[in-house]
Amino acid sequence: MTSTVTPRGPGVPAVPPGQPVPPVPPEEPRGPRSGLAWLLELPGNAIRNITKSAATTPGRFSLIATGLIVLSLLVGLLGTVSVQNRANTIDDLIDHREPLAAAAQEVFRSLSDADATAASAFLSTGSEPPELRERYELDIAKAGVALARAASDSGGSEAARQVEILSQQMPVYTGLVETARSNNRQGFPAGAAYLREASELMRAKILPAAQELYEIDTERLVEEQDDAAGVPWLIALLVLGLLGALIAAQIHLKRKTNRVFNVGLVVATVAVGIAVLWTAVAITVQSVLVGSGSGDGTEQSDLLVRARIAALQARADETLTLVARGGGEAYQEEFDELFGQLAGPDGNSGLLAEAASSTEGLDSAGHVDSAITHATAWREAHEQVRELDGTGDYDAAVALAIDASDEQSAAAAFNRLDQELAAAIESGRQVFVDDTTNGSRALTLLAPGFAVLAVIAALGTTLGFRDRLREYR
Amino acid sequence: MKHRTRLGVALSTFALLVAGCGSPGKPVDPAPVGSVERPQPANAALENDVQGGGTADQSCNPTASLSPNGSIPSGSTMDEIRERGHLSVGVDQNTFLFGFRNPTSGALEGFDIDIAREVAREIFGDPNAVQFRAITSAQRIPALQNGDVDIVVRTFSITCERLEDISFSTVYYVAGQKVLVGVNSDVEGIGDLGGKRVCAAKESTSLKNIAAADPAPVPISVDDWSDCLVMLQQGQVDAVSTDDTILAGMAEQDPTVKIVGERFTDELYGIGVPKENEDMVRFVNAVLDRVRGGAWQQSYNRWLLERLGPASPPSPDYQ
């Protein structure tokens, strides 16, 4: 406080320019005690007044009427807001949450693919095969765009941290790969060393961050789906309470006035009844649809995404085993482990079998079945590759591993598997979009409808009690 | 004007009172990144505690090998290899000129590779009946002990410490340790590297020699020699110190580095053989005897003559 103006209490308006500063008005003689006491007595007085008026029938009627009107409007307000929130949550699932999880998945997938492709490109001899170069470039471009999307809402420090790691390290990775390329072109083994450094960066830092980001976003998606598919207990309680109160009021009126029907209250009860039924049906339909969008869509996609990533990483291991040329036991062990996750040690379990049993009857079932066939073919090709490498025929092993034009090669089988999994994932996402959109449609007009019905209930109550109260004048 | 000032003062006082007298804070830093962690080759590490003596250990006569015997009796190690159909050799695929993968052809090439092919030629009559297994410096002894490979031909210095675990052939090449630095560096030898970061492969004699140097450099170890070149190019180490042969291969790949100083060790390259396979040691020595007759010079001229000057094969020494 460096200001030098006359001290002035807060809230006192600034004096217009040119006017002399008025003196501070003296404190009113009323002590603080009397004001406080008046405040403290307020609720007591109110209760006394209410009990006094409740002792008479008209007094009780106006109390009941006020209570019902306030309750109707309150339920109307809370219900409308809560239904609108729910509708917003569902729209957010489609417009925002799911695309975000898909973007994170794309980052993870394209980077894994870039790693596997760079290793394949290294194994191929002569000038760099253009299709592998294009694939790598496409992967990097996709990863960049998907990362920008995923970064657009990385709320929560953990997700933001992963995005930071990714956006810091991706340019470093591509720089190393390009250095490796230029060394390779000159025939220098330093190129291989740069590629190993790039792969190490990818596997030790970038892919774990991408995986973490994908898991965070998927978890958020599932949480929000659960929220949107849950039972809205608050509205249920309030609206049923209102209905009960209206019925009780009518029974009370009937006893006091000997009239069976009170038109106003009947209208109010019917309005609330309609609100109960409408809400119950709409929310049930919506919950079921959002639930199936989650169960048949998102969960299947997540399972298939995990299968696809495991396949991609196993593919990178397959090529890196050959790059290491005899020194790649660690990669081979990782391949076996990842392939075990993918298809089980026997080829009939693992993520793919899980996906097959849970997609039964869904559109993606066909893709998953073909994926299992291709995984088996890949496994066979891989074993042949290992056998060729083991018996010293390195060149034939490399050819069988990376030559995608040979239908029997590991590369071709892997590519077919990857395509089927991509199609199955897309199909799962479509189920999500379809079901969730339909779920959102079930809530159409419910929020304004709820508000209108609550107002009708309040008006009905007013009219109903006004007639009765008039009789006492 | 005066009124205006008073109004301004009054308003700012009011604003201060409303804001609760807090300071306005600083603008947010949009990129709170202080330093960048550089990418490193896999398994690159700072070596604080290098065990064992390097080439300086003279507790034995490392050059004396078993006398040569080029026959392949049935039941011998060579006979088993012949049955299998290929010779399994542990080599390097990252050291330019000695053992490296030619990125254009995908084939392994270099001086060590030529020597390995000569051994296969002797057993099978076919220099291509070889299964090359790329191993790191640190894997050389375990690969022999586990029987993963029949022999190791990989810039493998014979030392007394290693002779306790495996056997060596006669010496087929004599190299010596030097220092590789950036072309603008004023380092003139190992003596100028005190406190500086110097790179070498794990479990190599070079690493031990660096650790033993005075004043002591800071040894950084990596899996493969080419990882050292990468770290030097990225400015993560100040120098690489190892055999002049390996350094020559690095200098060949980068015009902005230079080899400095005199050889301060003698590295005697031998072919590593599992300790129990004495017949194989004798057989390999017979091969080397033949190689010294012509193939050696041919291969030397192809890979090393230009970079290291004329040389002739070292003469063998037997027990």
Describe this structure in words.
The complex is a heterodimer of chains A (473) and B (319). By secondary structure, chain A is mostly helical. Chain A has one domain. Chain A is 82% helix and 0% strand. Chain A is built from 13 helices and no strands. The two termini of chain A are 65 Å apart. The N terminus of chain A is likely disordered. By secondary structure, chain B is of the alpha/beta class. Among the domains of chain B are: 137 residues, D-Maltodextrin-Binding Protein, domain 2; 84 residues, Periplasmic binding protein-like II (D-Maltodextrin-Binding Protein, domain 2, 3-Layer(aba) Sandwich). Chain B is 33% helix and 18% strand. Chain B has a 6-stranded mixed sheet, sandwiched between helices. In chain B, a hairpin with a 6-residue loop joins strand 4 and strand 5. In chain B, helix 3 packs antiparallel against helix 10. The longest helix of chain B has 17 residues. The interface between A and B is large, with 48 and 57 residues. Chain B: Keywords: Signal, Transport. Chain B: This is Transporter substrate-binding domain-containing protein. Chain B: Belongs to the bacterial solute-binding protein 3 family. Chain B: One of its GO terms (biological process) is amino acid transport. Chain B: InterPro entries: Bact_solute-bind_prot3, Solute-binding_3/MltF_N.
Keywords:
A: 473 residues, mainly alpha, disordered N terminus, B: 319 residues, alpha/beta, D-Maltodextrin-Binding Protein, domain 2, 6-stranded mixed β-sheet, 3-stranded parallel β-sheet, 16 strands, 18% strand, elongated
Highest CATH level, the class of the domain at 77-173 and 269-308 in chain B? Alpha Beta
The count of strands of chain B amounts to: 16
Helix content of chain A: over 70%
What is the third-level CATH name, the topology of the domain at 77-173 and 269-308 in chain B? D-Maltodextrin-Binding Protein, domain 2
Radius of gyration of chain B: 28 Å
Termini separation of chain B (Å)?
109 Å
At the fourth level of CATH, the homologous superfamily of the domain at 77-173 and 269-308 in chain B is Periplasmic binding protein-like II
Low-confidence spans of chain A: pLDDT under 50, at least 5 residues?
A: 1-16
- Rg over alpha carbons of chain A: 35 Å
Oligomer: heterodimer
**Major sheet characteristics of chain A:** none
The largest chain-to-chain contact, stated as pair and per-chain residue counts, equals: A-B, 48 and 57 residues
Along the chain, the helix and strand elements of chain B come as HEHEEEEHEHEHEEEEHEHEHEEEHHH
Mean pLDDT of chain A: 86
Overall pLDDT score of chain B? 89
Q: How many individual domains of chain A?
A: 1
Taking pLDDT < 50 over at least 5 consecutive residues as the criterion, the unreliable ranges of chain B are: none
Helix segment count of chain B? 11
Tally of separate helices of chain A: 13
Biggest sheet of chain B, in brief? 6 strands, mixed
Q: Label the structural class of chain B.
A: alpha/beta
InterPro entries (chain B): Bact_solute-bind_prot3, Solute-binding_3/MltF_N
Protein name (chain B): Transporter substrate-binding domain-containing protein
Keywords (chain B): Signal, Transport
Family (chain B): Belongs to the bacterial solute-binding protein 3 family.
